[in-house]
Write a structure and sequence with these properties.
This protein is an alpha/beta fold. It contains 5 helices and 10 strands. The strands form 3 sheets. Strands 5-6-4-7-10 form a 5-stranded parallel beta sheet, sandwiched between helices.
Length: about 200
């Protein structure tokens, strides 16, 4: 909605953005909007993204907390084109929510490499990503005992993904921070995430 020109009604994905001003290339009309950060809480399966986000949702009024998996229920996710379309819709929804004055924190495991390569990326001040990590043994325990997952390939995929976050600080052109959850309760992890959010919200 924020990207639709109020002068000529142009709804095409062709808007120019400079600072917090949007300009329509068809008629030259321009308008200001609230340009806020885009937040992502990521990590491998079973690492605690959802449980942590549920606490953030209850206790942190500064952000709206949502799960990107909701789009798998209403949009296809089989191809690269499908995945890009999901990220575009996530960012479009986020930008419209931001006009209420609140940034959005998404829990999102995959498609991180697409976040900076979309049309809707231009509407955000910055993208901040925090990856929850743990030791390999802890990840296997969380998936097996915590979630009852027995699929060996799924477990190994999560172990490998977790190890990537522990040994890198970027994925493609997207940089991320990490938070080691080893030995921490979910409430302690949530408190660390809230501090991370507050730091970047204050900067914005």
């Amino acid at each position: 909605m924020i990207g639709i020109c109020h002068v000529c009604g142009n709804y095409d994905w062709d808007k120019e953005v400079e600072g917090n001003k949007i300009t329509c290339p068809k008629c030259g009309g321009s308008w200001e909007y609230k340009k806020l950060p885009f937040f992502i809480l990521t990590g491998c399966s079973g690492i605690g993204k959802t449980t942590t986000a549920q606490i953030i949702q209850r206790e942190c009024e500064e952000v709206v907390t949502l799960d990107a998996d909701i789009f798998y229920n209403i949009m296809p996710g089989e191809t690269e084109e499908d995945n890009y379309a999901q990220i575009e819709q996530i960012q479009s929804l986020t930008n419209n929510i931001a006009q209420s004055g609140k940034a959005v924190l998404w829990t999102m495991a995959g498609n991180l490499d697409k976040v900076n390569n979309t049309y809707n990326r231009r509407f955000f001040d910055e993208v901040y990503v925090l990856a929850l990590t743990a030791s390999e043994a802890d990840v296997r325990k969380r998936m097996g005992e915590g979630r009852g997952i027995t699929d060996a390939n799924w477990i190994q995929g999560s172990v490998d993904y977790n190890n990537y976050f522990r040994t890198h600080n970027s994925l493609g052109d997207l940089t991320f921070d990490t938070l080691d959850t080893e030995g921490k309760t979910v409430n302690e992890v949530a408190e660390e995430v809230k501090k991370w959010l507050a730091k970047h919200l204050n900067k914005a």
